[in-house]
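Below is the record:
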Amino acid sequence: MLALVGAIEPPSLTTVGFGVATLLAWGVLAVVIPKEKRAQLRLPLLFQGIWLIATIVWATRFFAAGTRDLFALVSAVTGAIAIARIAWLLVIDVFLKEGQRIGLSKLARDLLHAIMMIVVAISAARAAGADAQALATTGGLVTAGLTFSLQQTLGDLVAGILLSARAPFEVGDWIAYDDDRQHVGRVVEINWRDTRLHTNDDVEVVVPNSTLSRASIMVYTRPRPISRRTVAFDVGYQHAPHDVIDAVRDAIHDPIAGVLASPAPDVILSSFEGSSVRFTVRYFVEDFPRREVIDSEVRMRLWYALHRVGIDFQFPRLDVEVLQPATQDPEAKMQRRADALSRVDFLGKMAPDDIRALARASRTRVFHPGEVIVRAGDTSTELFVLSTGECVVRTDTGREVARLGSGDFFGEMALLTGEPRSATVAAVTPCTLHVLQAEAFRSVIARYPEKLEQVSQVVAERQAEIERRRGADVSLQLKAQQQETLLTRMRRFFAGTQTN
């Protein structure tokens, strides 16, 4: 309308073409850019508005020539920046999916964008007739001022460029740059000034790139996504190292949730301390965010394994002797074992004094969930009576056949005949078991040979009941034959061990 009344000069074909091109570009952007990212259109829209205002002022005849020349320069620069930003959004952000298709990092993308904008602005200014020498002088003064006032920021920028060039880590890696546990985190962003880490405490740590460039960075997920963990513990010098290592090896031999089977975990004697020997368990994990939970599971497994064989952890301490009644009554512990053994059907036929003798020769052991108590094919001869907890019985193929609870027992055939274990029994929950050795049972039964027949009768009836529960038809004649066979095997086993 202003052009019709002669207030401004008619628009040139270049101006008209630019307007049409930007309108088409805005239409395409409005369709292809997701709604949540449309805030990125504010900057090019601002430059588009400045271009429109500057173009109108430049074309208006009422202003002086110097003013119109200035606004012509502003129009050229802002218009070029607006169309460059629109082209960047279309090509890099939309078509190349923020540079991911060509492996462009965020830092490289930001630097490339800044360089492109500077080149476009200078080229547009020169095309609009700006003095090249004046541009160079002004740019030099601006650069000197920015360098002086933004020394730290520029240092972070240079450090970010160097980190991007070396690429010691990427977004998604777990890193640490000092000894502070809170500074171990997953890299979530690497930009031109800083790197952001997300820790297990659900805290975001912002680390200046200049700090990272001077630090020794540990990358836990490179060159492979697995990392080795260590758990150290101390025991007293009175314990033989091979006893400690054997106990720990047995503990970590069975699977532990989160610990990789390959590379296999191991245990070493790592140092001699002032009052203790230090051992270190080494193992690999792949789920690094759960590393502390996995470490806790390993420590619990170690506690149960060492406690079971009578090895205590050693700590620097001051011993103070206090005279007071004993809190652990050995007689009461022995009586608990006697009560548990008396509930075993074939031992219940024995006299109370014999049960107490067996209880005094027995031991109490604790097991951590997941630990194997006996394994199919083992030649051990202990009888286990479950005091607390739950156990699972599996065949040598891994099929579960039974669950045992408080008061149940297993291992009677190994105790009475010396047969290898026919099944694997593992702890499901923390378990306490009373363990009767074959030698102790033999020492009692040797005084009463006639009781072998009573024991074989009870065991044969128990085996027949198990067969009936499985659906087998067990006749009285078959049960008598099984008892006779069992009695023969028991006499042969105990006679053979006594001879040896």
In short: The chain has four domains: 12-149, 161-219, 228-308, 330-499. DSSP finds 16 helices and 16 strands in the chain. The first strand starts at residue 174 and ends at 176.
